[in-house]
Amino acid sequence: MGDLLGRYRSLRVFMDACVHCGACTDKCHYYIGTADPKNMPVARQELMRSVYRRHFTFAGKYFPSLVGAQDLTEELLQDWYKYYYQCSECRRCSVYCPYGIDTAEVTMAGREILDTVGIGQKYTNEIMGKLHRIGNNLGLPGPALEDTLLGLEEDIFDATGVPVKLPLDAEGAEVMLVTPSADFFSEPHVESLIGYAKVFHAAGIKWTLSSKASEAGNFGMFIGSYDNMRRAAMRIRDAALDLGVKRIVVGECGHAWRVAYSFWNTLTGVGHGGEDAFSKQLQQQLDPNYPAPQHICEFTYDLIQQGKLKFDKSLNDHRTITFHDSCNVARGSRMGDMPGGQFVIPREVIKAVANNFYDMQEGTINEATFCCGGGGGLLTDDLMEIRVKGALPRMEAFNNVVQDKQVNFLALICAICKAQFTKVVPYYGFDMSMIGGVHQLVATAILLEVPEETAQESVASDD
Ligand code: SF4
Ligand code: SF4
To answer: For ligand 2, is residue 101 a contact (CB within 6 Å)?
Structure first.
């Protein structure tokens, strides 16, 4: 703890500044869903603050019982494990704290200490093992990935008659897309991957996926290990250098975008951070006319603004849509060059491709959004009960627009939200087909030019 207090000045401020005003107590979705008082954000902080007082304050050292200071016992460590893994690091509570105390950072510090003393979480550690050994969270090896992409190209061609490509390891492409590996074959994730491919095709931009960087997700953030987080991020820098791309675009994944937007610069030098030779080489290589990195929603939005994409919005008329702001995007990052761009841009993309859109109620969207309940390393069946309970506030807000506006589609820009909601919405009486990606909507409405020879073949076979 002493080491972390020295490294992160914010942590010491968070330990000292709380006045126990109670403004954060009912703001956490896990507290709302479980009614467990230890899930109040201030109580979650107190698990660490009591130990901080014992070792780092005068009163705590000499009069521990008077100031609620306590030693870090085995029993207390068990509580740390339980409650730091019942926090998705979503930062909602910090929005309401008059001092801006960020429980997510306290949780991250708690997990870092747990990791250091050898108390790890099986789910996130296994995922990191797969990432380091095979290259992505799902453990999908390069040849399997190649087969999957070829299969998708065939599916798109059969459905549209357009030879949309999903290139892998194409050297000299303009854009390298880094996306969560769930996009390669999980439903509904894959529908968004098809959407990205169609956007690149329609805009005539050469792009590629990378077998080395076949995972945008970075669970290093969840296990509280800077080394793991950096190692995971470095694969992306290496792939960008190997392939010689000019731009790096990140697919629909909330925490991946938070890591990319907020940490890649100092972790890897993507975005004017690193001072080492490879960082500088990458900065020279990347096109300064575009943000590095860029979110896929920013990318598509820019093309829409330039009039480079054509849509038939009526193709989405069977859908009445609402949008869930992913917590990591809403409160851990930004998009575009306007304040609040991360709220505006995905909604503008949806409105450009669909006619029927309604927001959920104020206080549950934008910076006040609720986490899906499965973020921060909780997306494991072992934690199903807390995941279902943690989804409660989002499900209540969703239910309101389902009742009032007949909404039948919850649009997302996060792989974890997609996996979480498809699993938990049945507990709330909804069908998992109501869950999908923003680029799934783009894929439905985008108009692609059918090559003449395909069109002629189709006419001939109709005859
Ligand atoms: S899950 Fe979110 S709202 Fe709850 S304590 Fe953690 S950061 Fe705060
Ligand atoms: S809102 Fe801030 S100051 Fe008030 S109890 Fe919560 S963390 Fe402490």
So the answer is: yes
pLDDT at residue 112, rounded to an integer? 95
Ligand 1 center from residue 93 Cα (angstroms): 6
Q: What is the pLDDT of residues 348-366, one digit of tens each?
A: 999 999 999 999 999 999 9
Q: How far is it between the farthest Cα atoms of the chain?
A: 92
CATH of the domain spanning 140-297: 3.40.50
H helix or E strand, kind and range, residue 409:
strand 409-412
Show the tokens assigned to 331: 């409160």
CATH tag, 2-120: 1.10.1060.10
| CB-based contact 401:323 (threshold 8 Å) | no
Cα distances from 209 to residues 167, 170, 180, 226, 412, in angstroms, run 6, 8, 11, 26, 22
Q: Atom 3 (ligand 2): residue with closest C-alpha?
A: 18
Nearest residue (CA) to ligand 1, atom 5: 41
293-339 tens-digit pLDDT: 999 999 999 999 999 999 999 999 999 999 999 999 999 999 999 99
Are the beta carbons of 366 and 325 closer than 8 angstroms? yes
